[in-house]
Amino acid sequence: MVKFVYFRNKHRVQSLNQCWILNRLEEFAQCCVAAGSMYPNIIGFIDGTARAICRPKYKQRDFYSGYKKQHMLKYQSIVFPNGLIGRLDGPFIGRRHDAAILNLSDIRLEMANVFSTPTTNYALYGDPGYSNSQYIKVGYKNHHSLTERQKLFNKTMSALRV
């Protein structure tokens, strides 16, 4: 049954080029601004997630996350303000960083095709594990040396991702 559901619906989370996304870019941006976004063009959020697995018999080092101190599989998702997942990539080996997973996927090219409109370049908001780019905006890094204004910015934007 799981395979049936997967093969019948996988296209729904493997591409951002879908009418339910394309027709709502402006609406998503307005929702984010109404919720307190400091960027007027943020339409969703990108994040990696890790799921613990049993220790594999082979290639244990590939699946081990030194940060979490567990063997893991990692996934990357794009979520929109309506709560729907627009894209899901994975699984990836546990030792991969979020930014490395972004580079392994074709998502940058897809964002360039989908998020550029004649009037606005839309973007996603991600944690500081990603790099700031045209289509991904991140908070300030190095929390200890930030000004109060920068800390407030990070706090406000992080609250949107929940």
From TrEMBL:
Residue ranges constituting the DDE Tnp4 domain according to the UniProt record: 46-161
Stated name of the protein: DDE Tnp4 domain-containing protein
Origin: domain of life: Eukaryota
Family matches, as Pfam families: DDE_Tnp_4 (PF13359)
Molecular function GO terms recorded: metal ion binding
Cofactors, names only: a divalent metal cation
UniProt keyword list: Metal-binding
InterPro entries found in the cross-reference section: HARBI1_dom (IPR027806)
